[in-house]
Structures are given as structure tokens and as C-alpha cells.
Amino acid sequence: MDIRQKKESLEKKLQGFENIVVAYSGGIDSSLLLKISHRLKKDKVIALIVKSPFVANFEYENAISFCKEIGVNYKVINVNMHDLAPVKHNPEDRCYICKTLVFTEIINEAKKLGFKNIIGADKYKTLNEAIQKISK
Questions:
Q1: Strand 20-23 versus strand 73-78 pairing type
Q2: Which helix (H) or strand (E) holds 121?
Q3: For residue 61, pLDDT beyond 90
Q4: N or C: which end of the chain has fewer CB atoms below 10 A?
């Protein structure tokens, strides 16, 4: 599949969603997802930006600036991962622990806002595993 076909496939998938939460990090991949989603769905898209001690301030500020620049609604979720006992001990699976917490917060916020579809640029397997664990 070439890049044009991939873009068309993504757009078709996104068009099928009633509304979309983009788990937005401010990175290139999630910026692309956010921009395409917003172009297709306008006010039925919101970017959820996680603010935590593990996100550099300039990255957080850049994410907000991009949302303002393209005119997309956004909301900041504050997540303090230092309170998680397992993270304090720096185990091998610390990234999974943090991502599970972040995805839990994103899912909870999406539900509160009435959004049903959450997308992100994270590895699909990781996101899918986290959502399955959280949903149980």
C-alpha cells in the first residue's frame, strides 16, 4: 500500500467515527492524526493533552499552540505519575505502567465528554492491551 492509499484508508476509517478523541502528544504522528481528524470531523474532535512531570514544558506548550493554530478543541489532563509506587522503583515495565495510567485517564475523560472513539499514534498493540486491561 502506498502513502496515498494509506491516507485514504485512514480518512475512510475516521469518517466512520461519530466523534474522535485524539490522545495528543504534540509529536509528528499524533499531529498528523489530529489535523486529519479535525479536517474531516471539525467540532466533533477534541485533543486530550496529558501534562505530567515526564513531559517537558516546551512539548506541552507546543501541543497547545498547535491546537490553537489549527482551531481544534483541546483539554489538558494532569497526571502525576510520581504517586504510583511501582514507578518510584523504576521497574522494567515502568513505561507500560505509565501508559496504562495515561490511557485510563484519557478513556475516563473521553467518557465524561461523551466521546466514543479514541485514537492515538502510540503502537496499536500497546494501546489495545491497555484499553482491554482497563475495560475489564
A1: unpaired
A2: none
A3: yes
A4: C
